Amino acid sequence: MTEILIPYDFSKYARRALALAIQGYPFGKGKVLKVHHVIDEHLYENILSKKAIPDEEIIVQALKDEIETVKASLPEGTEIPEIVVRADRGRPAKEILEAAADSNAVGIMIGGQGHGGVKERVLGRTALRVIREFEGDVYVVRDSFDGFVVPRRLCCAVDMSEISAKALKEAARLADENKMGFSLIKVTANPYIPYLQRVASDLHDEEAIRELRDEDMARLKKFEKDTLGQERADTHNVVFGWVADTIISQAQALNAGTIVMGARGLSAISRALLGSVTEGVIARAHIDVLVVR
Q1: Residues 257-267: pLDDT tens digits?
Q2: Burial 175-198 (b: 16+ CB within 10 A, else e)
Q3: Are 158 and 216 in contact (CB under 8 A)?
Q4: Out of 93-102, 130-139, 161-170, 261-270, which region has the weakest mean confidence (pLDDT)?
Q5: C-alpha 240: how far from its chain's center?
Q6: Cα separations (Å) of 275 from 143, 167, 175?
Q7: Do the Cβ atoms of 44 and 59 come closer than 8 Å?
């Protein structure tokens, strides 16, 4: 049976991840959900004391209680998939990745903030390491829309690369299965940075930018048709700006609850395993991000 791993730190982000996964978002229904807590002994000891470190039985029971609380908060008639719990000791990122490998998980849902009372600087690093090293798709849950409700609109950011074509297909699937609004955007780096400055200086700035935008819009719609066989998105946007920040602001302006994007390729210079723009969006967005590999 296909499994989805949900690293669970008892934060509101983890609860939302579990609630969405139970409803089949974003990885679909019919999956076994593995709810996994890592007892980070160093973290407990540094914040509280060594005596405060819980044992696995306490954590497993707490996870079961959390699951019942989340289930009770879901819409009546929600079909509940098989849910299993797991508690390990160790460093969170390492244990999460090993648990994903052990279960052959096809996806991970992880909170983007909060870890046992520690702020984003801790779980942020954990989430980023998981996203960098996990070979499947990762849904990063942020403090965003409507509690446990599945988002009503998604925004897919593409750069015409092969990985963004895969992200576009995933976004179209999600929109179709969940009857969501679907916005497609392409962000081009600010036209006043050096490699476009010459183009803008040859013509009146507004005319140059308009021509660039028209060309990009034509390429965007062709990319969509080539990838999906049709124009599927209900809105299309081509925007100039600093790429990560502009993706975030556009998604928020569109009232999207999820940003869908490829794991790399949204920047001229990519990191070894995770595009620097993708990482920037994950770090700064206040809505959920689905990272597609």
Answers
A1: 999 999 864 33
A2: beebebbbbbbbbbbebeeeebee
A3: no
A4: 261-270
A5: 23
A6: 23, 14, 24
A7: no
What are the distances in angstroms from CA 70 to CA 66, 86, 162, 178? 6, 17, 37, 20
Q: What is the identity of the amino acid at 11?
A: S
Asked if residues 253 and 219 have their Cβ atoms less than 8 Å apart, the reply is no
Closest CA to 154 of 171, 137, 139: 171
**Which residue did the predictor score with more confidence, 41 or 232?**
232
Tokens representing residue 94 in the block: 């390492």
Query: Which 3-state string (H, E, C) describes the chain?
Result: CCEEEEECCCCHHHHHHHHHHHCCCCCCCCCEEEEEEEECHHHHHHHCCHHHCCCHHHHHHHHHHHHHHHHHCCCCCCCCCCEEEEEEECCHHHHHHHHHHHHCCCEEEEECCCECCECHHHHHHHHHHHHHHCCCEEEEECCCCCCCCCCCEEEEECCCCHHHHHHHHHHHHHHHHHCCEEEEEEEEECCCCHHHHHHHHHCCHHHHHHHHHHHHHHHHHHHHHHHHCCCCCCEEEEEEECHHHHHHHHHHHCCCCEEEEECCCCCCCCCCCCCHHHHHHHHHCCCEEEEEC
Whose CA is closest to 187, among 136, 290, 259, 258?
259
The model's pTM is 0.87
Q: CB atoms < 10 A from the CB of 148, how many?
A: 17
What are φ and ψ of residue 212, in 5° steps? -65, -40
Q: What is the pLDDT of residue 272?
A: 42
Would you say 54 and 39 are in contact if contact means Cβ atoms under 8 Å apart? yes
